[in-house]
Structures are given as structure tokens and as C-alpha cells.
Amino acid sequence: MTDAGENENAVSDLNRQIAREAMEIASEACGVCFSEMTAPNRKRAKVSFARQLAMYLCHVVGQIPMSEISIVFKRDRSTVGYACHMIEDRRDGAFFNAQLEFMEAEMRERMRIVMVRSQARFVSSHAIRRARAALAR
Predict the structure, then answer these.
(1) Among residues 48, 49, 23, 50, which one has the least CA distance to residue 106?
(2) Are the CB atoms for 14 and 114 separated by under 8 Å?
(3) At what angle do helices 13-30 and 45-56 cross, to 10 degrees?
(4) Which listed site, 52, 72, 119, 126, has its alpha carbon 20 to 30 Å from 91?
(5) How far is CA 133 from the centre of its chain?
(6) pTM for the complete prediction?
(7) CB atoms within 10 A of CB 18
(8) Whose CA is closest to 8, among 99, 64, 70?
(9) pLDDT per residue of the chain (137 residues) written in tens, 0 to 9
């Protein structure tokens, strides 16, 4: 059995940032507070639906494994699977599908920004390490 701290470490900073972007998109779309998205209790149906949307965006657009999404959202992996199925089932409606396509496009754009920032941090930290190594010689 794994320790809760070990599970927390199983999610990369990049995937946490992608999940945060998904939560922001879903909370804005549903008109709920961001802080309610990861609250341990179940709250209102509106919050649950926003959380399901965010989980779906993380998995489908962000390509984050359900096991990691469950850690970020502090939910069971089966809950993440259920959320993805629920959202996918609602795509049959033309209006909802159009809304979801808009959210997916927004998610892809935000992921591009997150990736660029992540790469810039890596390059910067790598350059700093190289400069320190050169100075140490």
C-alpha cells in the first residue's frame, strides 16, 4: 500500500498546472468558485458538474492519466472514469457539444502557454547550472 505523500509526488508539476488550467476553465464556464473544485465534500450539483468537466478536460485534452487526475482532485480513480463517461455521454446534444469544443480549444491554448513556460524554466535552470559549473572551474 502506498503512502499518501508518495501519491502526491506521483503527479508532475506540469500535470498539476494543466489540471489547474482545466479547473479554471470549468469553474468559469459553470460559474463556480475555483476553491470549490478541490473541496473534499460533495457540495452542490453545479460544483460537481464543473469538477466533472475539469476532469474530462484533463484526461481528454491534457492526456493526464486518470490515476494522476484522481490525486490532483482528491477523488477515487473510478470517480474520474465516471466523470469522463458522463461528459462524453452529454456530447450527443449539439449545444453542449459546441460548448465543450470551445472549452477544449481554450484548454489546448492554455496548454501551449503552460508548455512554453515550462520549457523556458527548464532552459533557464539548465543555463544557470551550466554557468555555475563554468564559474566553479
Answers:
(1) 23
(2) yes
(3) 140
(4) 72
(5) 36
(6) 0.80
(7) 26
(8) 70
(9) 344 444 667 788 889 999 999 999 999 999 999 888 878 777 688 999 999 999 999 999 999 999 999 999 999 999 999 999 999 999 999 999 999 999 999 999 999 888 888 776 666 666 666 666 666 66
